[in-house]
UniProtKB/TrEMBL annotation:
PANTHER family: DTDP-4-AMINO-4,6-DIDEOXYGALACTOSE TRANSAMINASE, TRANSAMINASE. SUPFAM superfamilies: PLP-dependent transferases. GO terms for biological process: polysaccharide biosynthetic process. The active site is at 186 (proton acceptor). The modification N6-(pyridoxal phosphate)lysine is found at residue 186. Keywords: Aminotransferase, Pyridoxal phosphate, Transferase. It comes from Massilia forsythiae. Pfam families: DegT_DnrJ_EryC1. One of its GO terms (molecular function) is pyridoxal phosphate binding. Belongs to the DegT/DnrJ/EryC1 family. This is DegT/DnrJ/EryC1/StrS aminotransferase family protein.
């Protein structure tokens, strides 16, 4: 029992003193909402994504909603996505009046199965929203081959994938719309926030309008509104945090990969066979290791709750679950979705557990988690 050790959360943000000082400067500057810090943050992000236009927002949810609006997705349109994501991914489809269509996941990658995605395309399909769960991209070449073959827009829900790569290229540096979140648990945070990578200056201008009430200003005192925008801008307080965090992105991504490597080493080659649990894909070189998720051996209803409770109570270790399948949430059941429609998503949704993984985590803490997981699973197996 190691319950006397300090609580180890599954995620914890780290903001360095330099960044805290930079936030203090913004607070003292007389300009705290969207301004120079946002401009600098957008420019830095754009450079990071190979010069593509980038706009900041106050969440990674509205980024996707706005991308759907820019793509002209609305009533009568279908949008295909994965059932294993945060509800935001499907909610934004409903928000713009379109119809969410789910395709089951691949049980190995736990991302949307691209064969099933392609099979779900109908004449009404207008866009695709793939999710890169835990920071692992889908097969990006195949994704865009399918999108191009069927003339579909792609809104990449790369909320978890800042720092991930595909064939050596950064996620966000290519493709169609790419949406990132800077929510507190993400690898890089602004407290809350997000950004959208776009294709053209025209799309970027439209994004600015949707971000702030549809407003365009002209001359000294001219104003007009010609699209229905909302209130989605990022404050300079948030942007100052993002600027500070960006300096560490490369180092923290490397650190997370080292932690993931240590997880695999500590679990060892026999862990899956011995326990019936399933480790994630060893996606070194593509994933940014946003989450480290294992699939528990199925011991019937309550398997995950019992496991999470044991880790918390006996070992003082926090865990998470990402995610409960969206199609089984009430709002989606009301639209006709049922158990049995996406068996892989349902199985993984019931048994997935997210182990601690965060920027300031240490290899000793990885060892502590692995020892606790092994002990709990061994005890379960002995019962
Ligand atoms: C975090 C997250 C979102 C939502 O981002 P917010 O910034 O919280 O709005 C959407 N999709 C996925 C996969 C996420 O992890």
């Amino acid at each position: 029992m190691t319950a006397e050790l300090p609580f180890l959360p599954f995620s914890r943000p780290t903001i360095d003193e330099e960044t805290i000082a930079a936030v203090g400067e913004v607070l003292r500057s007389g300009w705290i909402t969207t301004g120079p810090k946002n401009q600098a943050f957008e420019a830095l992000l754009s450079a990071y994504f190979g010069g593509r236009p980038v706009r900041t927002f106050n969440s990674g949810t509205c980024t996707m909603e706005i991308a759907l609006r820019i793509a002209g997705v609305g009533a009568d349109d279908e949008v295909i996505t994965t059932p294993v994501s945060w509800p935001a991914t499907a909610n934004v489809i409903l928000e713009v009046g379109a119809t969410p269509v789910f395709a089951d996941i691949d049980p190995v990658t736990r991302n949307i199965d691209l064969d099933k995605l392609e099979a779900a395309i109908t004449p009404r399909t207008k866009a695709l929203i793939p999710v890169y769960l835990s920071g692992l991209p889908v097969d990006m070449d195949r994704l865009y081959a399918i999108a191009n073959r069927h003339g579909l827009r792609v809104i990449e829900d790369a909320a978890q994938a800042l720092g991930s790569t595909w064939n050596g290229k950064r996620i966000g540096s290519f493709g169609d719309f790419v949406s990132f979140s800077f929510q507190a648990n993400k690898n890089l945070t602004t407290g809350e926030g997000g950004c959208l990578v776009l294709n053209t200056p025209e799309e970027a201008r439209l994004a600015e309008k949707y971000r702030l009430q549809g407003v365009t200003r002209s001359g000294v005192d001219g104003i007009d509104v010609d699209v229905l925008g909302g209130k989605y801008n990022m404050s300079d307080i948030m942007a100052a945090i993002g600027l500070g965090q960006m300096k560490q992105l490369e180092a923290l991504t490397a650190h997370r990969a080292a932690l993931a490597r240590h997880y695999f080493d500590c679990f060892g080659p026999d862990f899956e066979r011995d326990t019936g649990a399933q480790l994630p894909l060893q996606a070194f070189g593509t994933s940014n290791w946003h989450l480290f998720q294992i699939i528990l051996p199925d011991q019937g209803p309550g398997t995950r709750a019992a496991f999470m409770t044991r880790l918390q109570q006996d070992y003082n270790i926090g865990t998470g679950y990402h995610y409960a399948p969206i199609h089984l949430l009430t709002l989606y059941r009301e639209r006709g979705f049922r158990e049995g429609m996406f068996p892989h998503a349902e199985q993984i949704g019931r048994l997935t557990v997210t182990l601690p993984m965060f920027n300031a985590m240490t290899t000793q803490e990885v060892e502590r988690v692995v020892a606790a997981v092994k002990a709990v699973l061994k005890k379960d197996a002995a019962q």
